[in-house]
Amino acid sequence: MGARRALSTFLAVEGWKRSTGYGVRGTSIWKRLLGVVGVVVESVVLEDDDGVDLLIVAVRPRRGTRPRCGRCGRRAGFYDRGGPVRRWRHLDFAAVRVYLEAAVPRVNCDVHGPTTVALSWARHASRFTTGFEDTAAWLTARAPASAVAELLRTTWRSVTGIVERVVAEAAGRRDQLAGLRRIGIDEVAYRKGHRYLTVVVDHDTGRLVWAGKGRDSAVVRAFFDALGEARAHQLTHVSTDAAEWITAVVAERAPQAVRCLDPFHLVAWATNALDEVRRGVWNTARGGKGGRTRRSVTLKGARWALWRNPNTLTEKQRSTLAFIQITNKPLYRAYLLKEQFREVFAIGGRAGKTLLAGWLAWAARCRIDAFVRLAKRIRHHLPGIHATLDSGLSNARIEANNTHLRVLTRQGYGYHSAEALIAMAMLRRGGLCPPLPGRT
Ligand SMILES: [Zn+2]
Fold this sequence. Notes:
The protein is α+β, with helices and mostly antiparallel strands. Helix content is about 45%, strand content about 20%.
């Protein structure tokens, strides 16, 4: 038996290219099984690839379809028959890898010149079919790209390339920046904090709507350029982390928008103040650098107990907190100050403002240096914080988005470019995930 075995009689019981009892020809069965449109199946063979079976399905575009440019989709005239026959990886048939095979003619586009014709089964310049790519993207929106690569028997790099193509296509179809009213502008670090993306989220939908490389006023301007003047003037609220490079551009491009401070960052300020107190107490307890006592060990381990929301504490963390309450009054007071501050944003509105006023009075006379300084800083930013409390922006949602992006960028070392990382973020947080093939 040769390396290629024709499968024509294997599937089409009633005969290849002849009507079956149900009026379906063998070639049509293949086409329907593959889920591809606009093609004619010419042959199906099993090919031996080093002991592994590959199913090779030779196809050609259906006659009568007017050729279009593969890059822009405009109608274009025939140019030539193109180069050698090409293959596209398609979704597996059970354990067997499937490839479509075809010769791709070229057209002469008015804009792009001689280009390969637009195909009904694959995106331009891809080695995968659209069905394969949509499946890979759908899975990647829900699972680690490495798991997707293993399941689909391809590489991590291929998966990220697929995500870039799929997201570019989806972004071209939908205006991500339409109807924005309340947005948040923030930065996220990747490559172990050496590089940054500037991200824009829609507070009303919770979606990531824009991301750009870098963190400076030029990136923020690039966002406002994409948004356009008319839509920038429709913005009612813009939340930021008080960074001058963002707020200055917002004041210039969307002067009417109320400028808020992201509660997520404010709570982080309080958490940092608490950690400063914990480190100070720990250093004293261990009796100077390099020292170690039972108390200092407990305090070192207390970091997570102090950081976490009280309702997510484990039993052990709860007892650590109880221990601190008894043995270390200033640290426990600092913890309460942090928790009370978090509560301000959980409540929001007028009640939140009242609570904040009380908190400021408490912090100012608490005699814990880090919190006295924090109270000063909060007072300095009070108008922006009040705007946040009035706006009713959900801190929980902002925090969830932020956490998701951080998890994503922690894997950032693996991305070959900022663009690949941005595409992944838009797929997962931007609502640009395609439906699974054959389902809508
Ligand atoms: Zn073109």
